[in-house]
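Below: protein 1.
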Amino acid sequence: MKPPSRLIIAALVVATSLLVPSLLRSPLPLLPCLPAVTAPSGTGYQPSGLAALADATVYYATTPTVPQQTHDEISLALAVLRRRAPVRLLVFGLGHDSPLWHALNPGGDTVFLEEDPEWHRAVCSASPFLRSHLVSYHTRLDQADLLFDTYRRLPSCVPGAEADDEPAVRGNDACPLALHDLPPEVYEHEWDVLMLDAPKGYFAAAPGRMAAIWTAAAMARARRGEGDTDVFLHDVDRKVEKMYAEEFLCDRFRVGGAGRLWHFSIPPVSRRDNRTAAGGGGERPFC
């Protein structure tokens, strides 16, 4: 049997050493409760806790499969989850690291969105406890430049002149960058943390992450609950991810990064100063 990757073991050791002591000091039944995300019958969804963390540790310690992210990248998100958990965590993409994200949000709601039917079936078969949805995207990577150059001309895609005039996501089929037809629960809850590691964005016919980035920015701007929205974007070494991140997630809200992962902490418009609350920042209306 091939020995487990040192990278995987190191990542789980960091996760376990940081999370388990804090969880043991605060028993899971005493953690603050969030409104439940109602799961359809038969999905196999289960709340995350110490058992899930233990299962994930055993899995990664005994498999040669390497997660999509590096130790440093995982540690960047782990620091936020450790500070804010339990949270509502929305992850774009299913992967080898999905059981880890599920386990690192004890007591919270972790939901995954995946566009590839075969991959969705494979991951859910291996990890039936994950809460996931098969979704569709309406963009192509080879449209990225055109969408970027024209979105400002569409009122449905840009913030209005008033602070409360924010572009909608749900049902906003007039904006080609809005993920307007996701499962209802995505719109019915505010998400504290978003991890953008999908959809595919490395060949012309792939959906690209343009709509995922715009949607994350729109959700963060419209937040009404306490705190800011932490957004993590992977693969920022690629042109489209970097370009759209700077345009919609905004350099001024980037608070960290590791490897190919950027971390943004985005305040809602209601808590921004007058320079950015209404109509954005001129050339970059979301910033």
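Below: protein 2.
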Amino acid sequence: MKIKKTHRPARTASTPAPASEPGALRRAVTEAQADAPRRDRPAGQGAGNRGAKPTRPAKEGGRRPTHDAAPRATGSQQTGARPTGARQTDPRQTGRPESGSGPQPAGTQRLFFALKVPANLVGPLREAQRKLRGNWRRVDADQLHVTLAYLPAVPADRVDDLKRLGVTLMQDLPPMQVSLRGTGYYPNEGSPRVWFVKVEAEGLPELAQALRDGIHALGLETDEQPFKGHITLARKKGPAPRVPPLTFTHGWQAGGAVLYRSILRKTGPIHETASSFRFRAPLPTTPDPLAPDLLAPDSAHDTPPAEPAVTDPQ
């Protein structure tokens, strides 16, 4: 019995790459930039001038609010240029709108793109939160999420641009298999302020980076720290002991992402859904080498040839 060989056609120049590939995400960013209203596009960021350095929109009075400016490095601390439109924050503070200081600029909103944690994972995470003691403030179950990009001050008339960006980047992505890993603290040394659980998913870092690139292309601010997938479980408000490391084996299939609006309250932030986006592409399939259709005999080629006649010399 022969195994039928299958041949995959080679990708030609006319065959589009899957949208989950980094290059396709970059192209989607360019499309989203081109779709943005020209009146809102910073100087030098036209669709035909991709290499030009964007100019930030001017603030009232010609100065940026002091609470929204990133600390400037001096001397040996200057390790490189700060990306345009990026706001310097701590890696584990990404997506934590309540950590910002100063009043919210008039006419702006706090927004962030994120994956929502499904209800079937709330139980294991709440069980872990019960181990906390002291001045830890637990994150409520309906607030658990994986932040992809955080925008501290978005003018109300730019929210639709972010919605279009989300649709452009995510409509051709397949669902992502997200896995929980171990817990950690930020900062890890000294007195930590945040307790989190790490998450991993193929294509998640590329999506987070593409979102940030698209946000910068629209002339809006976001954080500049490398993406580190995590779910914040608690924040410390005073002296509190650490919980020994925990490891999770749970996970979920993320079928989309959400653009959240964060409203600050004394009891903590309230996250409202501004828009949601579905990953509409089908999951990639891997052919099974032991599939019956690959092992079926081919009548045209697998029939053994007739043996030649033998004459008995006598």
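The first strand starts at residue 86 and ends at 87.
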